[in-house]
Amino acid sequence: MNVTFLQFFAMLTGLFFCYHVYGQKKRGILSTKEAIFWLCIWGGLVIVSAGAGTVFPLDLTLIGGYRLGDVIMIVSIIALFAVSYVLYARMAAQNKKIKELIKKIAFDDKKA
Amino acid sequence: MKGKKTVAVIPAYNEEKRLGEVLKELKQYVDEIVVSDDGSSDRTAEIARKAGAKVISSPVNMGVGHATRLGCDYAITKRMAEVIVLIDADGQHAPSDIPKLLEKIDGSCEFVFTSRFKEKKEMPVIKTLGNSFLTFSTNLLSGISITDSQSGFRAMTKEAYEKLDLRTDGYEICSEFAIEVGRKRIKYREVQIRAVYDDWTKIKGTDVTTGMKIFARSLWMRLIR
Asked: Do residue B224 and residue A111 have CB atoms under 8 angstroms apart?
């Protein structure tokens, strides 16, 4: 099976974020179902990228007349998924910290 | 539920208008009262303290769901509550209904929902429709069967509360309670209560936008979490 640079890049990105999801789950930031949801997203990217030549309707071959518009579109989609996921995970982590802080302040209030 | 310490938890945000009256009546039905002040900018906390309630104050407004969790956590960890009664601060619920809720809590029931179903005719039409839709969808998502998923008046044992995995911060906590009760297979019952609808209580609570958010978040929490 010939793997193009773009396929390789997409698979690498997918695998990296699968590992990131695993880390977030281990630290208790994501729940099991949230982790499974994001693993499906990133795992899906890996699978689709690996079989791009056969199951993906666009021509991802970088050698031999690839279409620039397709490449930009696919890279953009990958980037959007990455950004939205990173923001989601970061927001969840920040939310957790804020709530712990508020709880501490409220419970330690001597006026209670 | 005799012999078990019962603590009422009231999430409150800018409720200086009605809170005093609610607390005055509430005292005779519970052992202690915890007011979870959700970053109010009025005299809510001051009024609650003067009425003899324990007050925990969030430095910022986080939402009724967050205030509810904060109050319940405080009641259990700091006030040694064995039974928690949640009641609204706006006077919509009658504290005299509390004995009805508490008598249901025994070995065969750990959680009591309440229903304002009989008084639904007094609700504005749009709220009646919204409430019916949210109750229908909550029943579908939770697998339990209740007639008013959005009532904020409920009672539960400490053990039941500790089983629940509550995370939402806004009004969707009402549906989250039902979904978690269904998910954790907690034994529950539902009792009919009286609800007071006047100009003040009618403008409080959920509107159409909030109703749609509750539905979307309930769906999310059931599918993803």
From this structure: no
